[in-house]
Automatic annotation (TrEMBL):
It comes from the Bacteria. It comes from Mucilaginibacter jinjuensis. The keyword Metal-binding does not apply. It is found in: Cell outer membrane. SUPFAM superfamilies: Porins. This is Outer membrane protein transport protein.
Length: 407
């Protein structure tokens, strides 16, 4: 029994990181327009959405934004009327970009720092799945220096190197009681890094349609010397050696995107994006402890994720020069096949709606606000590893704000 428990414990943090909470909160203008941006050249967030568009930006700029994320999930165990809710916690994905190039030059350089993966889930200590997970705090921060070149008035290209830093902290109960009947506790925490790249091309057509194509590569994040901390009865301490560490490698998938911009009048901008996410790279999970015991063994488990896609649409209306009104929405498919859904980040097909406002506060200063509501379709599952069985219902609420100085 203890071998099974520790096998599941080993799987938990890497599974949650790999299926991830793919937030993609790259910029407030783009969020407000349904996360469209591949076929648009709006601001420095092109570093994330399509580096090829950066050379077409009319100005240099520095911008920063934050999008507090409120994840609400409910679990109803099979055959029961009980409901368990996640606690109120706030994740803080952010983005920051700087773009510069000489006036009239055919090139621009830039740097982007953003958080495409992350999540904060806390089910507390007394829910039915406490032996699967109690809480998870996950962050992935990407750093991307970028170069973009305008090859002609109608086409530009760009690309950047990606360095990512990931951190994870997962806590769960162990069904191994001490003399007072208290459960054991386990905490797995660590940080790692990986490498990748992002490249794109941007076109302007004679029919006043812009087209963008972007490819963000896979970035394999390797966690070395993560801390495995166990709190158990003294009689069981030899089965849970302390201190102990772990190593794991997690492939974060590549994303291929195509986007279109339409400009029916000077006041209106319409956009469409389609994205294909190559989750199939996540086939197996290997997890290596520095110290093993008969209870605590290294693991190797199949995951067999499938590719996912998303479709996005958005619009911007500028009634006057200083104001912009934005709205959009989209649909995204889950990559997690039946039998592999976990409470760390309960995953399902989802749809979302967004809105936003832009205001030019001064000649060189813009304020942008955004809001997103995301609904995950309810999903009834029995996990093949933990046998946790029931129905997850989840919603996400994401307000956001950014400031941009441009010249």
């Amino acid at each position: 029994m203890r071998k099974i428990l520790l096998f599941l414990l080993a799987l938990a943090p890497a599974i949650s990181f790999a299926q991830g909470f793919q937030v993609n909160l790259g910029g407030q203008k783009q969020i407000g327009m349904g996360h469209t941006g591949t076929g648009l050249a709006q601001d420095g967030a092109s570093i994330f959405f399509n580096p090829g568009a950066m050379a077409m930006l009319p100005e240099n700029s520095i911008q920063a934004g934050i999008s507090p994320l409120f994840f609400k999930s409910t679990f109803n165990p099979s055959g029961s009327n009980d409901l368990y809710h996640t606690l109120d916690k706030t994740a803080t994905p952010f983005n920051a970009y700087a773009v510069w190039g000489p006036k009239n030059a055919p090139w621009k350089v830039g740097i982007g720092v953003y958080t495409p993966f992350g999540g904060l889930t806390d089910w507390g200590h007394n829910w039915i799945g406490k032996y699967t997970v109690e809480s998870l705090d996950l962050k992935a921060i990407y750093f991307q220096p970028t170069l973009s070149i305008r090859l002609a008035d109608f086409v530009s290209i760009g690309g950047g190197f990606v360095y990512d830093i990931g951190t994870v902290n997962l806590q769960r109960a162990l069904p191994i009681a001490d003399a007072n009947g208290n459960d054991g506790q386990a905490e797995l925490k660590g940080h790692g890094h990986g490498f990748g790249w992002n490249a794109g091309v941007y076109f302007k057509t004679e029919s006043h349609i812009t087209i963008g194509i972007d490819y963000r590569s896979k970035a394999t994040t390797t966690i070395n010397n993560g801390d495995a901390i166990f709190t158990v009865a003294p009689s069981l301490a030899s089965s849970f050696p302390q201190p102990n560490t772990f190593t794991a490698s997690i492939p974060l998938p590549s994303t291929t995107s195509i986007g279109f911009g339409f400009y029916p009048t000077k006041k209106w901008t319409l956009a469409l994006d389609a994205n294909w996410v190559a989750w199939h790279v996540y086939k197996v999970l290997a997890f290596d402890y520095a110290q093993n015991t008969p209870t605590l063994q290294d693991t190797y488990s199949p995951r067999n994720y499938r590719d996912g896609y998303s479709l996005r649409a958005g619009a911007q209306f500028k009634p006057v020069d200083r104001w912009a009104i934005r709205a959009g929405g989209g649909y995204a498919s889950t990559a997690v096949q039946d039998g592999y859904v976990t409470p760390e980040v309960p995953d399902a097909n989802r749809y979302y709606f967004t809105g936003g406002l832009g205001y030019r506060a001064a000649n060189h200063l813009d304020l942008d606000l955004s809001f997103e509501y995301e609904h995950l379709l309810s999903r009834t599952q029995t996990n093949i590893e933990t046998q946790l069985s029931g129905t997850f219902r989840s919603n996400v609420y994401i307000p956001g704000i950014s400031l941009t100085y441009h010249w």
